[in-house]
Amino acid sequence: MRNYSRLIYIILVLLVVSCKEKPNTKDTKTVEVPEKWISLFNGKDLNDWTVKIKGHPAGVNYKNTFVAKDGCLKVNYDEYDDTFNSTFGHIYYKKVFSNYKLRLQYRFTGKQLSDGASWATANSGVMIHCEDPKNIGLDQNFPISIEVQLLGGLGVGERPTANLCTPGTHVVLDNKIATDHCFESSSKTYHGDQWVNLEIEVRNDSIIKHLINNEVVFTYTKPQIGGAVDYNEQFWKRKEGEPLKKGYISLQSESHPVEFKNIELLEL
Predict the structure, then answer these.
(1) Helix H segments across the chain?
(2) Sign of CA dihedral 118, 87, 105, 148
């Protein structure tokens, strides 16, 4: 009887110890940290941006090509005489970025200027890993950069958007350096003046993704210096093959009115 009581005692002690060691998981929940997206455009002015238009020094917003109006950053040609005269322009955010997600909405509006190139109809772009606008030549067409080309539908036919163009740069596709200037994405065509959601994920000089309406439509790797340039050719030739790890972000004007809004960035 004594041995039986002792056994009961030992079992009770083990049960107590086991209960104490068992973690309490009833109220344990995974806490999601909210993403800290920052707004690059305040919807009111261009104070955080620098304009550079071909034929004009950095900081000169020729004929108010870029304006802040109705909560949008607009490329407009209201003060032009209906001729573009190859005055390609870009507006650059003030800060350099390397690893980030950029998202915005865009749409094409109105009519293209009369002497704009046929390929520039409903054509704009978001340039990433751009060179410093202060170093761009007076008559330079485009910054050394990676261009996420934005195209609007022409009413008929297919015309994908969030394509890739490479002014003064190369990328790697299918494990090979791709030296063509432009490459089509797998996106749908968006006709008219509808708003389109664009997101770009940039991972330094490793991988870059283009997304339209939350769908990945283009992916490539290893952005680097390379290819034809229209300014300071010898300088960039010496840098050929050098990885593009960071740079400015800019929005493009190419002769067709376009609007951008909700321009936000998440650093990774």
Answers:
(1) 2-21, 233-238
(2) positive
Which are the contacts of 48, defined by CB distance < 8 A and separation ≥ 6? 40, 41, 42, 93, 94
Considering the domain boundaries, does residue 15 fall inside one? no
| 149 belongs to a structural domain | yes
pLDDT tens by residue, 76-123: 999 999 999 999 999 999 999 999 999 999 999 999 999 999 999 999
Instruction: Tokens for 76, please give them.
Output: 């407009």
Domain of 135 in residue numbering reads as 27-267
The domain total for the chain is 1
User: At 98, is the secondary structure helix, strand, or coil?
Assistant: coil
Strand partners, 216: 211
So what's the pLDDT on residue 1? 45
User: Which pLDDT does position 24 carry in this prediction?
Assistant: 52
Instruction: Output the domain CATH number for residue 184.
Output: 2.60.120.560
* Angle (CA) 118 123 126, round 5°: 150
